[in-house]
Design brief:
3 helices; elongated; two-stranded antiparallel sheet; 32% helix
Length: 77
């Protein structure tokens, strides 16, 4: 594996899957002596993909349907 001029490397699929490094996963780098570890970040960023989606949808509902009506609609009742 070679590091690009931008400092990038490709993590092989089997290693990403075993480590749980999915697309958009925040990672952290830890130095232990001369060894570098990459692992999922302990605290995800506040501007993660999910947080952006929730912020985008917040306040968009009009509240005209009850929860029971919405559930009946999604179940096809």
């Amino acid at each position: 594996m070679r590091i690009t001029s931008k400092g990038q490397v490709t993590i092989p699929v089997d290693i990403r899957e075993r480590a749980g490094l999915l697309p958009d996963t925040d990672v952290e780098f830890v130095m232990e002596g001369h060894v570098v570890q990459i692992r999922p970040a302990a605290q995800p960023r506040s501007d993660s993909r999910g947080a952006k989606l929730v912020a985008h949808l917040r306040g968009r509902g009009d509240g005209t349907m009850s929860t029971d009506e919405i559930m009946a609609l999604t179940r096809g009742e």
